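Entry 14. Ran structure prediction on the chain below.
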Amino acid sequence: MLGAGLQGTLLGVRASLEHFATPVTGLIMSCYYVGYLIGTRIAPQMLKRVGPVRAFATLAALASVAALVHAAWVHPLPWAVVRGIAGLCFAGIYVVAESWLNHRASRSNRGALLAVYMLVLYVGLGSAQYLLVLSSPQSDAPFMLVSALISLAMVPIVATAQQTPQPAAPQRVRYRDLYRNSPLGVVAVALSGMISSIIFGMGPVYAHLTGYGTRGVAEFMAVSILAAVFSQYPVGRLSDHMDRRTVIGGVCALATVAAGILVAFGPHLQRPLFLALTALFSGAALTLYSLSVSHVNDQLEPAQMVAASSALLRINGLAAAAGPALAGSLMAAFGRGAYFGMLGTLTGVLTLYDLWRKARRHALPDAPKAPFICTQQIATCAGLDPAPGATAAAGQEARLASGWSAGASPSARAAPSSP
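Output, structure tokens:
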């Protein structure tokens, strides 16, 4: 995560310094999510075919080389290609990491383990922003550091002597049925992908256009990412005790208000207040994927859950691929204020859709609600099936790993109005 976090911010800053057009920078950043989307298709099969250690080592090596290519050829076209390769590689890396954790965890510690795992992800991504100040983004040194960090990640994986998991390939799922079961959840998964990709991809560009130097860009991105460290678990636990749609609507409304203030008064705000509002927006908005995935699984039968997670990841990745390109075009047309303007529009639209869905369908009774487990679009196991031959108890543990419960039969659920 140190390597991934540094690379994303570094590319945004370096693209601005090289005078790439803002829409072009947005397209380059979107290529990461295109590659990520492809990676969700091929990584599970690769993992099944060669095993987690070889899959991780192969993908990490390619990601390390991709970082160096950015330094060797500073041009939009090769950057777009290798950015896509990096997205594909990290999709596979996340598959290996989470499937391994699910395999090694027990029923008694899986929830806490995955919560700590998500905190490590965010701390790594956020802390990486400060590595940007160690050397000039106009030099090749930061790209070499990214490559070195990603390469070092192979050492504990390759050297481990622990038993490795052998997950099966994911099953297919019909998107139409998924939307019919949970319209709000599916829409929220898609919009959360756009929001997060804009934050990670175009946040550095926005900070640079605002006039921040290297240290200022690093601070802006660190605040944006680390805010989610403190919000994920409390917001998720709150959603376990009330209608998740209410929590989704609440965090969207809070994010919309913060974005509106930043659009209206951003240039005139004192720096501490500006960063506080940025943290408020990101801390609320970056919980949406976890909440929406949990909401979708509240509506599903146990047999549907594994297949559904793979479909949700693809929906999220497809929307994420469009986010930076669209944000870059709007920033070029309307100025840097379009960054928070677009983010606030997305959360505002989701707030209104949430209210409309609540009026159309009653809340689930408490029994079928799945317990919340911190998860996020950058680290989903792409719907891997449990290990072959797993017992019923092991299957129950696997469902708990993704924050899902066995739920109730359709007849036991509250009768919904039209989907």
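DSSP finds 16 helices and no strands in the chain. Will compare against last week's run tomorrow.
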